[in-house]
Amino acid sequence: MIKISNKKESTTQKIFLFAEDDWQQEKSDYPNMNHFFNGKTNEVFVKTDASQIQFFLGIGKEPKGYEIQGIASKFSNDYKKNLQALPTSVHSKLGLDATEDFIKGLFLGTYCYPFEKSHPFWQENFELNFENISEEEAQNLALKTEALCNGQFAGMEWLNKPANHKKVAQISEFLKTTAEKYDLDYKVLSREESAKEGLGAFVAVNQGSSQEAAFTILQYKSGKENAKTIGLVGKCVLFDTGGISIKPASNLHYMKSDLGGACAVIGALITASELKLPVNIVAILPITDNAVSEKAYLPSDVVTAYNGKTIEVLNTDAEGRMTLADGLSYLSKNYETDVLIDLATLTGSAVRMFGYTCGAYFSNNENLKGKLEKSADKTNQRLWNLPLWDVWKDDFASDVADFKNISMKPFGDCIVAAKFLEQFIEGHQNWAHLDIAGVAFGDVAYAKDKAATGYGVQLLLDFMENYQ
Ligand code: BES
Ligand code: MG
Ligand code: ZN
């Protein structure tokens, strides 16, 4: 449990937050530190004596909210071995919003895989004491931070798990328990049920697997009158071998991360439920792996998607757009939503285009673009818009079906994939597709190899908090 209080009393562990300018004004109160600390971004000076340990943390000049979060999370990650599970007073001049960012960063920065609450921050006797916020504000920040950590860590945990620990049955068990805990509606369609429903594109991906399919629908209902309903679809390919169009062996282990879209959705759903956000959420996670076997779907197969369109499969490694196509049209046909957003680790093309700096996003609604970019900029979970021009549709015209699942041209696959998905939104006028292949899984402070970044959770939450 996160404990935050308004208290004045002196503690044996202290954190001093200083912007450069404030430090200049106050440094005379801290003798003998002149040369050791200037308040620059990410600067840390640790001072101990027999009775106290003091951490001086620099936040630079006029940091933005996400920069404060970043500084705090780097600090808690770097110093988690030094910080004790003790009441800790924080000396700071930050306003309420910046304090919220500081606290969120501090706790998010404690994450490591696997997440065990053994870290001092998560023990009973840890408490953060602030003088500059009221007791009521302190309680509120504790709840908000805990809700965010519970959501984001759950998503990161599933992304980081090795392939043999995230089988369909295991993640389904987790989702079912989560639904019970937060009173969400939970529905799942097996392979047979999905086939019966007509989810032909999704079933094609799953048919080569020894594991069941789990086309999962989760619903959070706020109970608030006139609440907007947000539709979310998250790509949830538990391991992407490429299928019969098999991927090369180098870096294949990274394909355990092909559920980054689903993890962002799961995280946002958990946090939104804990915060009791005044919106409704319908989330679809078409869960499967993309396996190689005798039963696997083959290049040249023609399958019928949920909306009746036929797809010629020319590359079984373009499986994400198959599962999302059915996820999107199922959501669009069966639920009334004000906005429809899908998130997916969809293409290597998006990674080659933007590296690890931002997600590529596509939308058919200018207003929605503005809202998404605002949340993306604010949370520093960046997005950059790419076109949905009709000329791209020609690239996946098929001789034997309505569409091919790939273009034969060696460029623009993230645009092709987006344009392909647009064929399955059933006329939804407020849709966005987020290709997060480059940003969901990558270099992180808490691990040596690539791991979950938590991308998307704060982005979706900020978007939903401000959506009306
Ligand atoms: N899961 C991959 C996309 C991906 C690539 C995610 C790199 C994260 C990092 C997706 O299913 C895929 O294999 N896409 C292919 C599509 C191609 C066959 C048209 C790709 O991008 O190479
Ligand atoms: Mg693939
Ligand atoms: Zn994939």
Highlighted features:
468 residues; alpha/beta; Aminopeptidase; 9-stranded mixed beta sheet; 13 helices; 34% helix; binds ligand BES; binds magnesium ion; binds zinc ion
Outline the structure in words.
The chain has 13 helices and 20 strands. It has helices at 20-26, 65-78, 96-108, 135-160, 168-182, 191-197, 200-206, 260-275, 320-334, 348-354, 366-379, 413-422, 457-465, and strands spanning 4-6, 13-19, 44-48, 53-60, 87-91, 127-130, 185-189, 214-220, 229-234, 236-240, 280-290, 302-304, 310-312, 339-344, 359-363, 383-385, 403-404, 431-435, 441-442, 451-452. The site of ligand BES has 17 residues, from helix 10.
Offer a concise description of the structure.
By secondary structure, the chain is α/β, with parallel strands linked by helices. It has 13 helices and 20 strands.
Question: What's the SSE blueprint?
Answer:
Elements: E1 4-6, E2 13-19, H1 20-26, E3 44-48, E4 53-60, H2 65-78, E5 87-91, H3 96-108, E6 127-130, H4 135-160, H5 168-182, E7 185-189, H6 191-197, H7 200-206, E8 214-220, E9 229-234, E10 236-240, H8 260-275, E11 280-290, E12 302-304, E13 310-312, H9 320-334, E14 339-344, H10 348-354, E15 359-363, H11 366-379, E16 383-385, E17 403-404, H12 413-422, E18 431-435, E19 441-442, E20 451-452, H13 457-465
Proportion of strand residues:
15-25%
Q: If you average the pLDDT, what whole number results? A: 97
What is the molecular shape?
elongated
Annotated CATH topology of the largest domain: Aminopeptidase
Structural class: alpha/beta
CA distance, first residue to last residue:
32 Å
Helical residue percent band:
25-40%
How many E strands? Answer: 20
**Which CATH-level-2 architecture of the largest domain?**
3-Layer(aba) Sandwich
Q: Main β-sheet: number of strands, strand sense, barrel status?
A: 9 strands, mixed
Compute the number of helices: 13
Domain count: 2
The bound ligands are:
ligand BES, magnesium ion, zinc ion
The rounded Rg comes to 24 Å
Uncertain segments are: none
Task: Give the CATH level 1 class of the largest domain.
Answer: Alpha Beta
Task: Kindly report the name of the CATH homologous superfamily of the largest domain.
Answer: Zn peptidases
